[in-house]
Specification:
CATH class: Mainly Alpha
Order of helices and strands: HHHHH
Catalytic activity: 1-(5-phospho-beta-D-ribosyl)-ATP + H2O = 1-(5-phospho-beta-D-ribosyl)-5'-AMP + diphosphate + H(+)
Number of helices: 5
Bound molecules: phosphoribosyl ATP
InterPro entries: HisE, PRib-ATP_PPHydrolase-like
Shape: globular
Structural class: mainly alpha
CATH topology: Helix Hairpins
Main location: cytoplasm
Number of strands: 0
Radius of gyration: 15 Å
Organism: Methanothermococcus okinawensis (strain DSM 14208 / JCM 11175 / IH1)
Distance between the termini: 22 Å
Subcellular location: Cytoplasm
CATH superfamily: MazG-like
Length: 98
């Protein structure tokens, strides 16, 4: 099965590295480290709140849309902090009840 999240993570890393014109990820990550981290964390917090509100409203399409925003910004945070996708997957694997 195609691993869309892994592919997305690789694109995010490429955008952080190359900072192409018009890239949203580049916009979030181009400032000095403290500012960039604040910008990313603010988005993660905002999207978490929107996900919670959508769950409470109970509209499935909104929950999907907002949680995709949350997961996307979490991937940006991980990539910016130098965490590899596989390191998070390994942690899930470690927790899995065998
Ligand atoms: N998956 C995403 C993605 N998900 C969300 N976003 C952006 O995240 C921002 C979310 O901000 P807001 O919540 O304020 O905006 P909103 O969701 O439109 O509005 P509300 O939820 O507030 O109603 C928007 O600007 C979205 O465009 C994304 N921006 C980019 N990607 C992917 O990331 C990769 C790199 O993108 P670029 O860096 O733009 O090249 C590409 O594969 C893109 O498809």
């Amino acid at each position: 099965m195609k691993d869309v999240l892994r592919e997305e993570f690789d694109i995010i890393k490429q955008r952080i590295r190359d900072k192409p014109e018009g890239s949203y990820v580049a916009y979030l990550t181009t400032d000095d480290k403290k500012t960039a981290l604040n910008k990313i964390c603010e988005k993660v917090g905002e999207e978490a709140t929107e996900t919670i509100l959508s769950a409470k409203d109970g509209v499935k399409d909104d929950i999907i849309y907002e949680s995709a925003d949350l997961i996307f910004h979490t991937l940006v945070l991980l990539a910016y902090c130098g965490v590899e996708y596989d390191e998070v997957m390994d942690e899930f694997d470690r927790r899995r009840k065998k």
